[in-house]
Amino acid sequence: MRLCEIGLYVSLLVALVPVTVSEQDLSATSAADTEQCATCEVRQHIKTMRLNAIKSQILSKLRMKEAPNISRDVVKQLLPKAPPLQQLLDQYDVLGDDNRDVHMDEDDEHATTETIMLMATEPDTVVQMEGEPKCCFFTFNQKMHANRIVRAQLWVHLRPAAEATTVFLQISRLTPVAEGNRHIHIRSLKIDVNAGVSSWQSIDVKQVLSVWLRQPETNWGIEINAFDSRGNDLAVTSPGLGEDGLQPFMEVKVSEGPRRGRRDLGLDCDENSPESRCCRYPLTVDFEEFGWDWIIAPKRYKANYCSGECEYMHLQKYPHTHLVNKANPRGSAGPCCTPTKMSPINMLYFNRKEQIIYGKIPSMVVDRCGCS
Questions:
Q1: 3-10+26-67+261-371 to CATH, choices 2.60.40.3250, 2.10.90.10, 2.60.40.10, 3.90.1720.10
Q2: Most buried of 66, 69, 188, 261, CB within 10 angstroms?
Q3: Domain TGF-beta family profile spans what residues (predicted)?
């Protein structure tokens, strides 16, 4: 049901209220209350429709047929306890549930950058000898293209060393055992660590990722080692007891195309407003109420919705529309109160492959309402 059709529904509700001889003596206040009650009922109907639409839009925009079946327990197990993710979560804590980008000039073009966090999985048996190594293979989705990679960091957690030492963190590319040379050195990092201190370390892997995206057949995974001076491997590659969330992962930032906003004007109202004209009203979406634990953050956000009447006299911005409708009043259902400007939200979530994605979901917040 279009919003303008709901407006007609309001008018019918008001018009169909029975009027008897005794009721004709009621005060104007009583009549206004009746109309206000009908308006509130329709607003509630619009809010319900908007919430249902938002659920469908999110799944559609994320190319999902249904919500991922990921419980809170699974989320806690898979969520990396790592600096880049904690920084994102801290942003939501500071900004609150209505997490939005810093406001920019609406006429400025800006690119959308999406962050994808890929969890390490066990590589194919063709690169293993006697079941080793158990780590690390990364699966890449279709959004990734070599020419759009902004940054790629491999994050590795180091267990505490028994004493102050120098750790050599080594990253090697795996190849099938049958090809002879199983390890092709990629990068190494020399790290001084203190006794009894665990830490996260990151290493730039943009170059190797670009090769994998251009030549997917070369991606057999990597092996990660972090040897201290005694030859102990401190890298957490196969998390043990109490090491949930410490497995290696890759943080990839992907650049997408530019978009352009536009300026517009409109009315803002609250739920108690007597305004009958087209207006923007507040509406908060709570993902926990949806049962969507796969959305990590925000847990709720302000989506807003449009409601109100659109008379022809309100369309002075488009006088030709007014003239056309006046000439052919039965040829149109009338102008609708609809969003004239919408903006994206930033969302951190698990996809169906249990990869963590951080990106913009377009057109999820109603910024302005108008008649069209």
A1: 2.10.90.10
A2: 261
A3: 260-372
